[in-house]
Specification:
Blueprint lengths: L2 H7 L42 H26 L13 H10 L5 E3 L5 H6 L4 H9 L8 H4 L10 H16 L5 E6 L6 H12 L4 E7 L2 E2 L2 E2 L19 E5 L3 H16 L5 E6 L18 H8 L3 H11 L5 H23 L19 H15 L8
Parallel strand pairs: 1-2, 2-3, 3-7, 6-7
Antiparallel strand pairs: 4-5
Helix pairs in contact: 2-3, 2-11, 2-12, 3-9, 5-12, 7-8
């Protein structure tokens, strides 16, 4: 019997059965799940001068962002919004990284970065206009250096890379940060942005919120190695941070942004966190994941751990928490009232700005839509 025929008789091992490397390497952590401060020689310097007031500010940011997010979810359930993508559980990743940016840095979000938007001064009510269908984004990106939400998965990393290359050519010392999820990391656009940013040494930070689920697909369906290690193949550093630790996210993002500003090129930050709710309000997570998994992550809640630290260090008292609770309720009411007061858009606005000089087909569609609207007795349409 030949060697070739012997090999042919051996059962083939399916690619899907190959044992993958460990998906739980060490990660940067400054606050444990119990709220205890742990030392980290490399990243402690980036939060060494943080004051109790600033710590309370981080806590306030997370609480108000969660309250706004919960109100938006309720509004969608009541029919006031067409859709909503909740950030529940990802507050530390967004607030920590968002507060690490400078005013002159530029942010490219996906569609779930409500906490980052908060940090950049975007009114929460403006975020909801798009989800209510009354605008294409209710803020001027250049007013806050915060780009409009991007629905196309992964494309914003290319936009961020191009913008960062422009920043470098202009000789500015600002940086760019692009947000995306673990699912988006499988997109070709992300791979291309990694290539270009590395080759051109672009001042950009790629901030991946690994919330464990790309809709219904777990992270192990996206990669056989930890996501942050992908950066090695492109020639720039990657780091995994505890995405439920707001201090660690703040420190690591500050470090990465400083690298970018000083001409050291791109960095990939993987914030290891968890999406506590559904992918969007049209999703049912109970169909693909169990309660035990969520419960294990609830014990790592980012807000609970920072409160434990504040209380243990005597940085906040009951008066602070009571005032914040009242403020969060007021924010919820304000957002609700603002959404319900939003005027309906002009029915024919959808035909504007399609072509710069008009188009015969658009004119035909506009006429057909006008006839449809006129078919209703009250003239208001369906």
């Amino acid at each position: 019997m030949t060697v070739e025929s012997t090999a042919a008789r051996k059962p083939r091992r399916s690619a899907g059965t190959k044992k993958s490397p460990s998906t739980k390497p060490e990660l940067v952590q400054l606050l444990t799940a119990e709220g205890k401060r742990v030392k980290n020689a490399e990243y402690d310097p980036y939060v060494a001068d943080i004051t109790p007031e600033e710590l309370r500010g981080l806590y306030r940011d997370m609480v108000l962002t969660r309250r706004f997010d919960a109100e938006a979810t309720s509004l969608q359930r009541q029919g006031e919004l067409g859709l909503w993508a909740s950030l529940l559980g990802q507050e530390a990743a967004q607030i920590g990284s968002g507060r690490a940016t400078r005013e002159d840095d530029y942010v490219f979000p996906t569609y779930r970065e409500h906490g980052v938007a908060w940090c950049r001064g975007v009114d929460p009510a403006n975020l909801l206009g798009m989800f209510r269908g009354v605008n294409n984004g209710g803020w001027d990106p250049n007013s806050n250096n915060f780009q409009l939400y991007t629905i196309v998965i992964g494309s914003q990393t290319l936009h961020a890379t191009g913008y960062a290359m422009g920043v470098a050519k202009d000789g500015a010392d600002s940086a760019v940060i692009a947000y995306f999820g673990d699912g988006a990391s499988s997109q070709g656009d992300v791979a291309e942005s990694f290539t270009f940013s590395a080759v051109y040494n672009a001042p950009v930070v790629f901030f991946c919120q690994n919330n464990q689920w790309a809709i219904s697909e777990p992270t192990e369906k996206q990669t056989r190695v930890p996501l942050y290690q992908r950066a090695q193949g492109y020639g720039f550093p990657g780091v995994r941070v505890d995405g439920n630790d707001v201090l660690a996210c703040l420190a690591v993002t500050k470090w990465a942004l400083e690298r970018a500003r000083s001409g050291e090129g791109p960095t990939l930050v993987e914030a290891y966190t968890y999406r506590m709710g559904a992918h969007t309000t049209s999703d049912d997570p109970t169909r693909y994941r169990g309660d035990e998994e969520r419960q294990s992550w609830e014990a790592k809640d980012p807000i609970t751990r920072l409160r434990a630290y504040l209380e243990a260090a005597n940085h906040a008292d009951e008066g602070f928490f009571a005032e914040l609770e009242a403020e969060s309720e007021a924010l919820g009411r304000r957002v609700r009232e603002a959404v319900r007061a939003m005027p309906d858009p002009d029915h024919f606005a959808i035909f504007e700005n399609v072509y710069a000089d008009g188009h015969a087909l658009v004119d035909e569609e506009r006429a057909q839509f006008a006839a449809y609207q006129a078919s209703f007795a009250d003239g208001e349409g369906a």
